[in-house]
Amino acid sequence: MDKIYTNIIEALIFSADEPLTQIEIIRAIKGIDGEEIDITPEDVETSVNELNSKYESYAVPFKISKVAKGYLHATREEYAKYVGFLSSEKTKRRLSQAALETLAIIAYKQPITKPELESIRGVNSDYILSTLLEKKLITITGRTKTIGRPLLYGTTDEFLKYFGLYNLTDLPKPREIEEIMQDDDFIEQKNRIMMNAVEEDLVNTVEKGNEDAGETE
Question: How does pLDDT run across 107-125, given as a tens digit for each residue?
Fold first, then answer.
């Protein structure tokens, strides 16, 4: 593969708003330079590795990450908490504790039915499932062959993007989760998120009270 394509691959990934797959990268290159161009998925992977090595050698604060079966420019882990402090995206899309719990069960047990999910959680999950479907973090993958043929649920590529995973094999093992839970940075960020949630709920309550007062005047 011609070295010039490393720069093209970098430009394609940099300009993409969503993770770009190897096939999409190859299609873009051949769409401009012709189908006879000899470039393979392995060539794309090699270029990405070369780019990341270059980024690391120059100590730049970003890299190309493998997310949702594709490539995306992303901030390096050591800078993530600073970017996260300024970013409101996660706050707007924040999941409740119940939603996270449900999502974790689906991720590790999929495909799973609603009755199976509720037997693990011990509570009705209609609203949570509806919320996760609306956010496109889960999807209906089919039906079982048992009586009543209940729906089966599984995670989506949006789930992978939300948590920065390349595929489901990147999910942390139970032992790794325990270690993460004890990490000081994790505890600090968890406490900050909880405080933000309390403040947000308080603001919403005050605003709702003002609206109600206005209606009674």
Answer: 999 999 999 999 999 999 9
Tell me the whole-structure pTM to 2 decimals. Answer: 0.60
Q: Candidates 3.90.380.10, 1.10.10.10, 1.10.3720.10, 3.90.1300.10; correct CATH number of 95-168?
A: 1.10.10.10
Q: Does domain 4-78 have CATH number 3.40.50.10540?
A: no
Give me the helices (H) in the chain, please: 4-15, 22-33, 41-57, 77-86, 89-92, 97-109, 114-121, 126-134, 157-163, 174-182, 184-216
Helices 97-109 and 126-134 meet at what angle, rounded to 10?
80
Let me know: does 193 contact 171? Beta carbons within 8 Å: no
User: CA-to-CA distance for 180 and 190, rounded, in angstroms?
Assistant: 11
Q: Closest Cα to residue 20, out of 66, 75, 77?
A: 66
